[in-house]
Amino acid sequence: MNIKTILCAAAVCGGITAATAADEVVAEAEKGETEETPIVSAEFGLAFDSRYMTYGVIDGKDPILTPSASITFFDWVYFGVEAIFDTSKAQGRKGGYGNRAFKYTTLDSIVGLAHDFDLNEDLGALSVDFNYIYEYLPRYHGEVGDTQYLNLELSLGDLWLEPTLAIERDLMADEGTYVNFSLGHTFALVGDEEDPTLTFRPSVGQGFGNSLRTKGYFSDTTEGFSHSGLMDTTIKGEFEWTLCENVALGAYIAYSDYWFDSNMRDAARAYNAEWGHAYDRSYNFVGGLSVTVSF
What we know:
Order of helices and strands: HHEEEEEEEEEEEEHEEHE
CATH superfamily: monomeric porin ompg
Number of strands: 15
Strand content: over 45%
CATH topology: Porin
Radius of gyration: 21 Å
Helix content: 10-25%
């Protein structure tokens, strides 16, 4: 039995109860009617990243594991949980939470609204995702406190360049705002365009942080830093292989740097040197793998 058969069978068996309940509300009421929206759907994921990265700089030089789970009602409201697990003893010491090897360093509880709105033939659908995150961080000598975020993401995925605007607002740590705009395109490598088996998506994104966001992130390593401006530029390539209706595998590689602002670039270099243990440069390469099971 090959890996594709094993994973698909596991996903189907693991989700058979919830899938059956959802299927009961998907039956057509009359001939010619479209399927109704399922009452409930769920998704489970596990991601591996070669480094712990945020805003294009290093928050941990060693690999991390990120399990996640979410449940969605009526294709609108969702609840989720996500955790980051360190894979080394020393990685979390500078963050104030001590030795967290194979223990979680962050635990996020998420509630949000997400939906696709049909606009017109030219623009296609507008995907909107608005969520609130409470992020719990384990205490270590009282150095680290929890925080909260509000996030809004808007995407026109039916356009060729698939523009996406993401806005993050920190509500507790520094009350800063981070904005990222990205362009990309999804190519079908195997299968047809409507229902591909294997896809490749190259993209480029540019981040911007206001003075509160950049000060909150860089002031510890660059004295007096309170400079808003263009932050990380990221070039990424992503693959997704759909094993079956319920299981997808993903892989990516990305390059990030601070191209457009010399002050920001110096701050990123100092930050990387502090967290990356003498890794004194502003650019980074990172890659990862993931598996997603949905039903």
